[in-house]
Amino acid sequence: MAQDKNVEKVIIVGSGPAGWTAAIYTARANLQPLVFAGRPKTVPTTILPGGQLMMTTEVENYPGFPHGVTGPVMMSYFEQQAVRFGTRIVTDKGLNPDVSNPDDGHSYAYQDCKRVDLSRKPFVVVGEDDKEYTAHTVIIATGATANWLGLKNEMRLAQSGGGVSACAVCDGALPVFRDKVVGVVGGGDSAVEEATYLTKFAAKVYMIHRRDQLRASKIMAERAKSNHKIEFLWNKGVVDVLGDNMITGVKLKDTVTGKESEQPLGGLFMAIGHTPATAFLNGQLELDAKKYIKLKDPYRSTTSVDGVFAAGDCVDSVYRQAVTAAGMGCKAALDAERWLAVQGVE
Ligand code: NAP
Description:
Blueprint: E1 7-13, H1 17-28, E2 34-36, E3 58-59, E4 69-70, H2 71-84, E5 88-89, E6 113-117, E7 123-127, E8 132-140, E9 144-146, H3 152-159, E10 164-165, H4 168-171, E11 181-185, H5 189-198, E12 204-208, H6 218-225, E13 230-233, E14 236-242, E15 249-254, E16 260-264, E17 267-270, E18 274-276, E19 308-310, H7 322-343
Parallel strand pairs: 1-2, 1-8, 2-5, 8-19, 10-17, 11-12, 11-17, 12-13
Antiparallel strand pairs: 3-4, 6-7, 7-8, 9-18, 14-15, 15-16
This protein binds NADP nicotinamide-adenine-dinucleotide phosphate (NAP).
């Protein structure tokens, strides 16, 4: 393949554990990756730079941090490691920001990827400032955003570590929830799984569901119903989250009678589904029914377009863990590196 110096070898879209890990591996393979890290607009509806971990307080299940680490600090470590080996990040002030001190407030803004053109080679990736970049390979690692109810106090307490979370597996074991009465919103498999998990630590778990029937599979539903620590609040919608610095309860509205009530709680976990950040692909990669990117081979990172790889929560509706996303980012980097070698791009 003729080598054009203006064509990037690899562009990575996304900056969660999958994106940064892909960057670390491709940078160490001397491919000088270019990263579109994304930009927060109105949380929680868009891709966050750093991904879902930017909404997480303590991360205690990522190997290598025996004393835990906060999500934002962990993501800044990932980023610094990627930059150390030559990763460039697209910002409004150029490609090489100083990421060594994330606490001093960045004087630049990361760029979102606005759109891609995967129909021609080299591929085209367009930033939000309409600047076009071309690349031989693209790794999509844009993640999936947990769905929230969109209540003002829900978001305030979620962002300040006030006992509201969208991931029980990530946060449920934190001391702040031990022996508390907590709530899980939702009636699907995730809600049941999270409620069951929480019973290991919490004194009691209320499953708050807007209907009188679970969506979860029968076996999961039976498991929850037979767990003496789980109690169901059927036909209830959460209309407000109560508490100043820490959640004290929720205001509920009966979806049948309209009657309002309050339920004291020491923690609240949203389990009302996730939305993969794949809309910007505009149908150019094959997606599954739930809009997650379909992999050509489940053990690899190959997608329906040759030379485009995908990793992390944008392909994974099942595990959704930082460590699984990072592992997939590694696979995508190795797949991209091998693909480039086969194409003769050095
Ligand atoms: P899901 O199946 O889409 O369930 C979402 C739940 O949230 C539903 O009960 C829904 O209520 C409720 N909900 C949605 N929007 C809401 C709102 N605005 N207010 C209140 N409630 C709302 O999502 P999921 O549970 O995350 O599961 C996603 C996929 O992963 C599913 O295919 C699931 O089977 C799979 N999964 C499997 C396992 C397992 O097998 N171990 C574990 C986790 C997930 P309605 O029921 O009224 O629509």
